[in-house]
Amino acid sequence: MTRSRRAGWGRAVGVLVAWSVLAWAARSEAAALFTTADAASLVVRAKVEGSTPYPAAKLQVFHLRVTRSLKGAATEGELIELAQEMLFASTKPLFSAGTETLVFAVPLPNYSSFAAALPKGTYWRWAERLATAPDVVALTEPALADAVAGYFAAQGDAEALADFLVHAVVGTNARVRDDALMDIGRRREVAPLLDAGRLQPVDAWLHDASRPPLERARALVQLARGRAAGIVPIAESLAGAAGPLQAPAIDALLTRSDKTIAGAAAEALVRQGTPEAIAALRKTLEEGQPDARTAAAFALKRINRAETDEILEDVEKTHPDPEVRRLCRLALGESMHEH
Question: Helix, strand, or coil here: 59?
Answer without folding.
Answer: strand
